[in-house]
Structure formats: C-alpha cells, structure tokens
Amino acid sequence: MSDSRDLRSQTVDAWASTIPDIDRQTMETVALIKSISEAVDRASDQACRDLDISAAELELLVPLRHHNGPLTAARLADMLHMSRAGVSKHLRRLEDRGLVVRQASDADRRTAEVTVTDRGRTLTDSTFARDLAAHRALLQDSLADPTTVAVLRRINSAIMGRMDELT
C-alpha cells in the first residue's frame, strides 16, 4: 500500500474518531478515486519521461489528434474538464515546439482554433502508445474482471450527471 493511501486511511480514521457520525463512506470513496487518479497520472508521467512532451500536454494532444477540424482552447478545456488557463499555458508550450498551430477563427477573429501539426501527430501517436502500455500494465489485474469497466462507466456517468446539475 502506498504512503498516500496510508495517509488517506489514517485521515479518514482520525476524522471518524473525532466525529463518530461523519460520512465515512463518502470520505473513503473520494480517497479511493483520488488514489486511482494519482496512480494513472504517475503512469502517464513515466510514459512521457525522456520525451519532448509532458503527460498534461499529451492529454491535450490526444483528442486534438483525431478530432474533425480545429477546436478552440476554451472548448478543449470544457471537454477535458480542465481550467482554461492551464490549457492555454500548455497549448502555448506545444505551439512553441511546433506541435500545434493556433489560428484566428473565421467565425470569430478573437478566438483561436487549434490544430495538430504533422510533427505533433507523430509525437502523439508514439507517446500515446507508451502511455496506453503504462496504463495497461497498471490496470491489468483490475481489467481481468469484465464488470470493472462497466462499474467505472456507471460511476462516471452518475458523477458527470451530478456535475451538470450543479453547474
């Protein structure tokens, strides 16, 4: 068990001993989701190590790579549930390295449309293969159970539905 999971479990236990009627199930669920997310992020960071791209940049390039037509930075941020400022910062870095191009939109000159360059497509394809392999190695035991992905889809759908209601 990793140190972060130990700390999260200890935190749940400490809160529960301080406030016996606290919602322990919600705390434990959030701790599990965060732990899984961090493990997947670490696997992506490992896959991108020693390459001309970060895991966060790859996360932007992957949907851009196969999207029909250009996307705006704002639309990309919304689709990926990321901050617009973070997306803009990463796109600027990708553009500086010639991996994406931003051009003023014909529909609204104040808006830039983002497209992947040939160099960006090549790097995305090779890096995404490494990223996917790292995730497969991380998840291989969990994916042996055919119900795992179905359960994760249901959880994701329920959470995203609640997010839409809250916004």
Automatic annotation (TrEMBL):
Origin: domain of life: Bacteria
Species this protein is from: Corynebacterium variabile
Annotated protein name in UniProt: Transcriptional regulators
GO biological process terms on file: response to stress
PANTHER family reported for this sequence: TRANSCRIPTIONAL REGULATOR, MARR FAMILY, TRANSCRIPTIONAL REGULATORY PROTEIN
InterPro entries for this protein: ArsR-like_HTH, HTH_MarR-typ, MarR/SlyA-like, WH-like_DNA-bd_sf, WH_DNA-bd_sf
GO MF annotation terms: DNA-binding transcription factor activity
Residues in HTH marR-type domain copies: 26-161
Pfam entry (one): MarR_2
